[in-house]
Each structure stands twice: as C-alpha cells, then as structure tokens.
Design goal:
CATH topology: Jelly Rolls
Number of helices: 3
Shape: elongated
Strand order of the largest sheet: 1-8-3-5-6
CATH class: Mainly Beta
Number of domains: 1
Number of strands: 8
Distance between the termini: 10 Å
Structural class: alpha+beta
Amino acid sequence: MVQELAIDTHGQGLVEITGEVRGVVARAHLDEGLCTVFMRHTSASLIIQENADPSAKADLEAWMKRLVPEHDPMFTHTAEGPDDMPSHIKSALTAVSLSIPIVGGSLVLGTWQGIYLWEHRRAAHTRRVVVHVGG
C-alpha cells in the first residue's frame, strides 16, 4: 500500500506526523512488514526523535540553527533567500527516508519515539510525504 500525505508546516521546525503514518499502517491491514516514509523535497527532512518532552524538540531546533546558520558568505545557492542553502544542508544532515518495522499491525517505535517532518525553510509549505507499507 502506498499513500502520499500532504503535511502543512508553519515555517522552520519539527512537525510530528506519527499519527498520520500510523493511520496509513492501520489501513494497510498488515500484521508484519515494513513501513517506509519518504520526503519528496530537498529542503525538509524526516527524523525519529523523542516526542514526550517538548524541550527536546526545542533543543534540536536551536542546535540545528547554530550548526547551519543563514547568511554564511560561502553559500552561493541563495536564489530563494538566505534560508535556501542552509535548508538543503540541514536536509542532507538528517534523512529523507525512514524505515520502521511493523509487528502485530503496529509500528515498532520506542515508548518516547515519534516521527517528525523537519521543515527547514522559514516560510510555510505543504510538504509531500510518501508512506509505503509492505509485507
């Protein structure tokens, strides 16, 4: 089963999509298999990270901004603004696809793990994420 999700973002930051991905897995009616989540963009990414304490999310976002700051004079790919090249680097440092086992009809995620779309651009976007569930 393959389903494309349209996820609205509100600018830079982490957006939890665990519920949406779980919904696709539930509709697949598969007891065991693999769920692949794929980001169809080069300026946003995917991660699995803690979803219990909001300070973890805030710390990750702040750390990434420090790691890849805007306005670096070495960047030449700036046609879409000062967040253009940093968004591509941030995407390259994280992931554009995730693989999560399915056992007993459910994603095998740890107690505190959530699936996040990481928007690296300052403007709001509708991001396309493909979820493939196979057995």
